[in-house]
Amino acid sequence: MPAIFDFSDYGALLGVVGNSILAAAILGLVGGLLGVFVMQRDMAFAVHGISEMSFAGAAGALLIGVDVLGGSVAGALIAAAIIGLLGTRARDRNSIVGVLMPFGLGLGILFLSLYPGRSANKFGLLTGQVIAVDFEQLGLLIGGSVAVLVALLVIWRPLSFDSLDPEVAVARGVPSRALSLAFMLILGVTIAIAVQVIGALLVLALLVTPAAAALRVSRSTVLVPILAMAFGLASALGGILLAVGSTLPVSPFITTISFAIYLVCVGVEWLQGRGRMRGGAT
Amino acid sequence: MSIAAAGPEPAATADPVIRIRGLSLRAGGRRLFHGLDLDVRPGELVAILGRNGSGKTTLFRAILGLEPVATGSITVLGAAPRRGNPRIGYVPQQRIVQRHAPLLGRDLVMLGRTGTRFGLPITRAADRHAVAAAIDAVHGHDLASRPLGELSGGQQQRLRIAQAIVHEPPILLLDEPLSSLDPAARAEITALAAAQRGRGVAVVVITHDVDDELRRADRIVELSEHGCWVGTPAEARARGIHDHPHHPDEHDHPEVPDHLDPPGPVT
To answer: Which DSSP helix (H) or strand (E) runs through B225?
Structure first.
């Protein structure tokens, strides 16, 4: 069995893949932050559905020879718009996602089967290929992530109000419908970016797991997003740094780190619960 | 705590903060109630009664500018109702808070203060002070740092009231604030409503707890599709309004013991 890790030329390698690392790191931050709202709005399943449609868009673009990132964004935005417009209630949303997801995945597999090119590209869309993404595309990924981050911060408070206390928020004049569409747009763009980095099948590891882990150990409106960003960053950055020194792809490292963080947080939550019981408080 | 000590008598001359004339509301083509005339003045407590589906919550939504008026008019603080008016505090019917909601007690109150603002989420000192003052007003110091999902119904309700009064609104709308609370919590919430009334806030309460509210309110309003009734608690009792048939599920609240429930001055 060949060695999985080889850090001998690590410094030189880091220089070559510097932008990939940056792209993954920023995506980790954005994914953690966005994940907080994904959890609050009960949209984990929708995230998965949008990422499969994003995969279909990317595969379609690959087949007809246009920009893969563009196809990925188009697929994600179409899915996000459909889910956002038709699925205002959780139950409707889940059934729409349940219908869209296999359709998107099937469509993507069809496009890839028809595509005559290298098989590495095929696999990459499903399971991640950030180190293979070219220089200009990396710029777009980074720019897109930063734009999403800024947009999210600008709508942060009304979006929180709408997610956590919708009845009062509407009464107080929060533009619920517009916010919900803006959120779907932000989600679509982020997922399209995440598909490039970690692959369509594994998007949840950056958009749900870090936030879910943070919610295990804190209930603070301030602390949860900060922890989620830190967990997302640790997963994405740790994953890519390990992958650079190894022969394996990035994704399994990211998913494993993010899952390990989640497990630790479950443990911490359990300890907190025990501590509270001993303290006699409710 | 007695309302007689807490509240000034409502000045009959004060301009009403809510003025309703000949109001009818509809929902999905069905008439909910019609012919409502009502003035609510500063420092008054008005209790809204009526069967399920008689339009009690819809009336609140109309006052909040969320529901169109079929016929008649509503004037709120001298103007037509408008959505997002920070001069109305609103506590909707309780709903279950997810146990894992990332929301501490003070976060809920802060949403009421800054939740409508776009821009970088930076909290100003003035907002922190306002939130602390509102939490003080509901005696919620010990709740501020606790996750909302882990608090009892009465504790959550106190924080919702803090959220509603964080802008010090002259009008407070409470939609069934006592439902599913235990007697001690009901007494607390009732005392908070009385304290707001004592500060000159006009408090409008939707309730099924007829006997409870009848003793406290300045006026009783009964909404009905056959025409609305407005009168004093004494008139309401004479009319036998407390025998009004309600949905059986809403009669399962234990009575508040009398020592927790001193009679109000109005009868």
So the answer is: none
